[in-house]
Amino acid sequence: MRLPPARGLITSVLFDRLAGSPGVPFPDAHVTGGLDDDDLQLALFACYELHYQGFDEADDRWEWDPGLLRFRAGLERRFEEALRAAVPGPGPVPPREVGQALTALTSSAGGPSVAAFLQRDADLPVFREFVVHRSIYHLKEADPHTWAIPRLSGGPKAALVEIQADEYGGGRRERMHAELFRATMRGLGLDDAYGAYLHRVPGVTLALSNVMSLFGLHRRLRGALLGHLAAIEMTSSLPSRRCSMGLRRLGAGQETARFYDEHVQADAVHEQIAAHDMCGGFAAAHPELTGDILYGAACALELERRWAEHVMGRWRRGVGSLLDERVPA
Questions:
Q1: Number of domains the chain is built from
Q2: Are 62 and 50 in contact (CB under 8 A)?
Q3: Which Pfam families match (predicted)?
């Protein structure tokens, strides 16, 4: 993956440094912006990406460069401030009530239903736009939540590994969810290369991935990471079914829809494991962190609501939801 074009002062400074040798000092940056800010979110995404697949132009030694880490810390402080302003932290609950509290949170999630629109009304160009947005996470599906595995023990660790094993196809490459999503992209005539559309997606889309990396790369936020995963698993089965039905309405074949078909069944099982075995078990071992679990879930739901309002608002006006109105070829 190559570095995308800069979107402002922060990314201009960052990308200029990443194209050079590690050790070059970073200037103090006055960080502004929020959850949908293109410059801030792209800069954070690029910093986090150094812990995943990286960029062609960036030396791997940048991953742990002290100057870059200080620069990233400033971006993270602003991101966390924006998250806290948008998502007031839920209060702690007794550990035995965590599963019930997660169910209440996910059941009351608001915002427009993108999946219902895709099922019934979206045309093929709009569905392809949707897949471009989702490719930013789905092509590395499960990786951010896997950071939690070495930070857990006992039952919660076993529960997370059970979920992640399914995400990675049980050891079979062709069944990995990221690979299934590549098949969806190819079936829709899209480029299935990792990060191929990074330059096309807005900040509100990048924030969906950035919050996972923020939680995953900080041990202090491990409870929030588990709550985030639980919220995803608890809210994805029905939307996946609707996406599958929408693809078939548009004439897509089995291979193109298989990613969504897989999630209908898998996430229905994962929902129970995530809420009770993983989050419930973690809460029993760390009762002081039950509020963190619920906060992570609430962040997942709020960022998804904001993203849904962005794409649905633009589609209803008949304009593209990406950074320009052209549908990707």
A1: 2
A2: yes
A3: Haem_oxygenas_2
Whether 109 and 37 map to the same domain: the answer is: no
- C-alpha span between 264 and 289 (Å, rounded): 30
Cα–Cα distances (Å) from 194 to 23, 135, 184, 197, 217, in that order, read: 28, 8, 14, 8, 21
177 touches 138 (CB < 8 A): yes
Are 260 and 118 found together in one domain?
yes
pTM greater than the 0.90 cutoff: yes
Q: How many CA atoms lie within 13 A of 181 on its CB side?
A: 24
**Pick from 33, 61, 86: which residue ends a domain?**
86
**Cα radius of gyration rounded to whole Å, the chain:** 19
pLDDT above 90 covers a percentage of the chain that reads 90
Residue 233 to residue 77: CA distance in whole angstroms = 28
Domain that holds residue 32: 9-86
Pinpoint the alpha helices (H) of 112-176: 114-120, 124-138, 143-146, 154-167
> What are the structure tokens assigned to 215, written together?
């939680």
Query: In this structure, what token pair is assigned to residue 130?
Result: 């949707």
Contacts of 102 (CB under 8 A, 6+ apart): 227, 230, 231, 234, 275, 279, 293, 294, 297
pLDDT given for residue 29 in this prediction: 72
Instruction: Please report, for residues 52, 110, 122, the alpha-carbon distance to residue 55 in angstroms, rounded to integers and kept in the order given.
Output: 9, 36, 34
DSSP 2: P
**Does residue 48 share a domain with residue 194?**
no
CB count, 10 Å around CB of 233? 25
> Per-residue pLDDT averaged across 206-225, rounded?
98
